[in-house]
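Weekly puzzle thread! Below is a chain. First person to post its structure in token form gets bragging rights.
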Amino acid sequence: MQQLERRVVKLGGSLLDCADLVERWKAWIAVQSPAQTLLVVGGGGLVDVIGELQRLHSQLTDQDAHWLAIRAMQLNAEMIVGLLPEAEYVADVTGFVSRPRAAGLFIVDPWSFMQADARSESPLAATWEVSSDSIAARLAVMLGAEELVLLKSALPVDVRDLGDYVDAAFEETSRSLKAIRFVNLRDAAFAETRAKK
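Winning reply:
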């Protein structure tokens, strides 16, 4: 029996203020090929607040701010679980390496994932250079996902130069991925583009 593909999707924090986010998500996922889908939710406005607090309180290091931002992502992930009751919340993604690739939606607990990553041989840096983009890419690499999809509020101007569109660590973190798609979830037709892979 052929197993489904595994897809990691990053839901950008900038989309969390869409009043029709659930409807947009359901409309987008309905037209995707069947896959085992793991969702990483971005930090959005909560992370912006952490950045502002760090500017006000210089004692907060980049590492402190990084882990607070991961907590913000965790809060947002738990909110999305409430909005998408068909999803399963996953605290330990290491089990997915050998798990059968059955269809379903799985929302990743970023705190648990990043705590495990911090104990790995080459963890992601605990700095502002690493955002949910690179976290989703690291997850996709770890799980051998066939593709990574970044759902955002706009498309990159040029996929050959992602610049400020993704975090500074993304290019290196995503280097070994087979396929990367960028999707504008705010667009009525879900306009998308593919990275050159």
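Puzzle host: Confirmed. Bonus trivia for everyone else. The first strand starts at residue 5 and ends at 11.
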